[in-house]
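For the sake of transparency, this paper describes our internal protein records without simplification. An entry from our holdings is shown next, in its original layout:
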Amino acid sequence: MLPSQESLCRYADDVSAILDGVSIDSTAFSDISHDLARTDVVIPVVGGFSAGKSSLLNALLDRPILPVGLTPETELATELRYSVDEHLLAWRSDGTSERMELANISSIKTRAAEFTHLQAFIDSAFLAERPELVLVDMPGFGSSFANHDKAVAYYLPRGAHFIAVISVEDGNLTHSMTRQLSEIHGLGRSLTFVLSKTDLRAAEDVEAVAELVRDQAEVAFDGRVDLHLLERDAGKGMRALVEMLDPDEIVRSAYTPLLKNETLEVLGRINIAVAAFQRDDTQNRRRRDELASGLQAVEAKRDDIIKEIQGARVDRAVDRCMREMTRELDQAQGEFVQAAMSGSADALGVAITQITRNVVGRVMQGELRDASQTIASAVAGALKPVGSGAAEPAGLGQELLVTVQNSLKLAGETLNSWSTAMSSRNAAETKKLKEEMNWKQGQPIPRAAYQGLTTVLAVTTNVVTPLVELAIIFLPTIIDWVKESRARDAIGQRIANDIIPAYIRGLRDELPAIVSTEVAALVEAVTQRFENEIEEQRRAVSEALAMSNASQGGAAVQIAALSTARNAVQRLANEVLYSEAVA
């Protein structure tokens, strides 16, 4: 385990122990510790088909493990992991795997359609020295629709850092590769660029290509990029490149913001509990009734907010998507013609799908991020009459609004950084638990396994799958159109006059339902955050009333214990999360 993992796991476990001692929920810290202890630093190696990714990784291992020269239809993402017991695991979408000899890695790829990805366990000195690193040989950007999409869907959110390989033979950063790297960049992942096959060109040609690629990348990705030229000894160059990565810092930068966010939230819960014990019984009973009314107000307002937000946002988001999609598709017509003429049956569909996912994902992320704050304000408005008075004219809504908005912002930043395992647990889990227990108004809200990341970005990641499904629906028609003619001019006219307009029409018909679903899920997520905050306060009030009825002087004891716990958590946070040494 990396030093950062040990330090942050110990912090999460220590905070959990402190919270358990004062009956403050510590589930979030336990979950983080569990995930952190099992975190691998995944480094996908991406690039165009035949860019030389597999050859470079073989050179790094100093063994011809990975097959080269595969057809696009047989490429599968392959993880390189260390083990003295060399073997291959081929994973299926249902979570099962098939074990076989490592030597079967070439033949297994003829069964690519059966599997999602491979794990190659290799007795390699280089991997043995870095067991926390998982290098992944990704299908090329020119590989088949099915294999490329499986790899993107699985590794895009899991990758901690990406190495992008560009062949000097390509001469530049192609539109297709720029688009797909932008998808990686848009999720906050870092990139290192490698120029491969430099021994195939004269030195001055290599330098000219390197300068062009560097300029293109800096424009596309908003700043200076790392571009490494691999000379004759490509294995030595790749080893040096991987050695430059700091897995300890990658893990720390991913999990520290998450732990900071949870620490702020738990300190807030301790303060809520202290406040409850400081109130007398009459004040706490009134507060309990206010909180119950608050839960009812949130539930009652939920459907209205969905309708209001959808009415204002869906048409706007769809219109933006359509405008940007039309522009991007028109600009890519030359690329589409080349794809259609390539001989690959679904190359054109892959290109169109890439643009669809890139444009719609970008637009939806922006729209939903903005909508999350609007939804939070709307929920706060519904809560305004609850608990308002001379001392707190804004009521319960304003009291909770800042906490919820800050939580959304901080958790959103964490997701954008790198934290896949957490993002999959969202408001849908709580909704399911409510249905299973036949939950009624006034009952305690069931706690999902992890509530901290029910945020806009967690919801937004679900957009990718329905978009891919849309492309699959349209793909057979696109292929049939292309097959009708092999002449470049005829294909170009068909793409401009038939394929793009028909695709836009189909997307406009299908996209509103997708956007509506995402908006509804977002409203559920944000309102759930309010309900969680209200429920936490109600629990504290109930405990304070029970303690008051049980014994005199119990409140003072609880206040002292909570204050001690708060100080202990703050001290630990300062030492582990906020010290200059870990900044």
